[in-house]
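Morning run. Coffee first, then this:
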Amino acid sequence: HAPGQVVQWEDMVIEKKGFIINIHADYLKGHPLAERIRNYHYFAYTTHEALHISPREEVTLLSLYQTIEAEYTNNQDALSREIILGLLDTLLRYAERFYRRQFLHRAELQGDLGYRLHQALVRYFASGDFYQAGIPSVERMASLLSVSPRYLSDALKAETGKTAIEHIHGFLIEEAKNLLLERNKTVAEVAYQLGFEYPQYFSRLFKAKVGVSPTAFQKNARLNHTDD
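And here it is:
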């Protein structure tokens, strides 16, 4: 569960064995883990995106938990807090490693998530939703793919080296190039068709990704076409 999340159980029958580590936010204050824990995005994943660990990975995590439990129970001294938080940090880092393995494994079983996102963007664009609803957000695309936004970005980063927003921007730029080549279409018209509320924002993004402004790209493309 994510830090600060309220959890409540009612009439719950526990059929599996496991462990839960509950740590108050105050216990982390002043320790590097207080900041670093925000980088563990898996706290924001949904239930069906839970980590599925192998028997070998289970041994690793269980060993760390048992060491934390023993330290908390038997050695409450000046060094105990540092040791406990150090072990907890190690446990969280292992979870991060195991998630990265799971991303790649699921890509093999379920297909390339980058390809699925691209296909979803193609359908989204073809439906006219860009023009009506604006630039597709990571949240919107994650919903279409039935995953959480955090999971989508992290899985794509592991598979392709690019985040979800980078994939979305890449798709927009490629579509923009095609539209800019259409006869008599202005830069502003292209921007609005792609869902940009302000053409200036489109121009900035295009130049950042392509290296030239949309106007310059359009002019060069038309000159080359004329030469041909």
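The first helix runs from residue 25 to 28. Good start to the day.
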